[in-house]
Write a structure and sequence with these properties.
Strands 1-3-4-5-6-15-7 form a seven-stranded mixed β-sheet, sandwiched between helices. Strands 8-14-13-11-10-9 form a six-stranded mixed β-sheet, sandwiched between helices. A two-stranded antiparallel ribbon has the order 2-12. Helix content is 26%, strand content 31%. It folds into two domains: 6-152 and 344-369, Aminopeptidase, CATH 3.40.630; 157-331, Aminopeptidase. With 378 residues, it is an alpha+beta fold. It comes from Gossypium darwinii (Darwin's cotton). GO terms for molecular function: acyltransferase activity, transferring groups other than amino-acyl groups.
Length: 378
Amino acid sequence: MGYGELIIRSYDPQYDRTRVEDFERKCEVGPAKRVFLFTDTLGDPICRIRNSPIYKMLVAELGNQLVGVIQGSIKLVTVHKPPNDLAKVGYILGLRVSSLYRRRGIGSSLVIKLEEWFIANDVDYGYMATEKDNKASVKLFVDRLSYVKFQTPTILVNPVSHRMSRISSNVELAKLKVEEAEAIYRKFMSSTEFFPIDIGNILRNKLSLGTWAAYPRGESWGGVPSSWAMLSVWNSGELFKLRLGNAPLSCLMYTKSSRLIEKLVPCVKLPCIPDFFRPFGFYFIYGVYREGPLSGKLVRTLCRFVHNMASKSKDCKVIVTEVGGSDTSRLHIPHWKSLSCPEDLWCIKALKNEKKNSLHELTKTPPTRALFVDPREV
């Protein structure tokens, strides 16, 4: 390449932490005409994988120059027809290559090196998530590295305002104990695609704020309610902060004017955009499940409850939920269309020859089953 030999090695926190933080900031400059997000990892470059069972970060160097990074995590999940079908999967995230060194195979080399680590740890499938319109990422993983489309989940984003949402008096809310939540998830969601076998570790993690259930008032949770719903909440803002960059002037003016109008004339219900131009955190809703004819309403009530909880937080500006593209729960989860992503893209690759036939079944079958999105991978 004319710049020395490319070296890919494991991340060394003592030597690499500051270098990786500086590198990440430079990589998130973004297109001149596009809104983008800055990520502040709060001094911990591996914060997004630290809570996973097994994880690794790789760095790429040319000479003494840091030119690329990638992260990966490994876990055991259900696929196809659990509980008999389990798979060890490796998640790829955080791939960055310096703009000065792109189109030289560094990205491919980082992915291949991470796949080698997956294989050494007996991983069945590697998978990744990207924006559907991210042409560079799709070209790398699908065209060059043989990944195939797996799922197109929906990402729903709802801003948090200081105005409290109304909770229906006809609904009873209950916070579940960790043991109870784990038992219910294993009973009703163990057949969900990519359900993590270590769900108990997720629920017991300090970032998991709790699990709540909703059911019609007058009925008993200890019995079998005619309708019920449940969800859990993860505080991603404790791991890293986000900040909006390069927003158009009109967006900035609307934010400031809507806040002023709401303050001076509170009766005017003008949608107020939070201040995304300063670092902010967010809550992630996961494990959404519902049953019964009124369950859609109960999901909405739970989301309103989470909103009210988030409104008491100093830095939580949005609530994010990601569900399978065919999951009808998305119709009942409050969100702003302008902030949400109707089709995220998950791609997957079999890392063992014997798994290639099952991969065909996994990717060609219509995604009618629900998808469990692990909050540790957000």
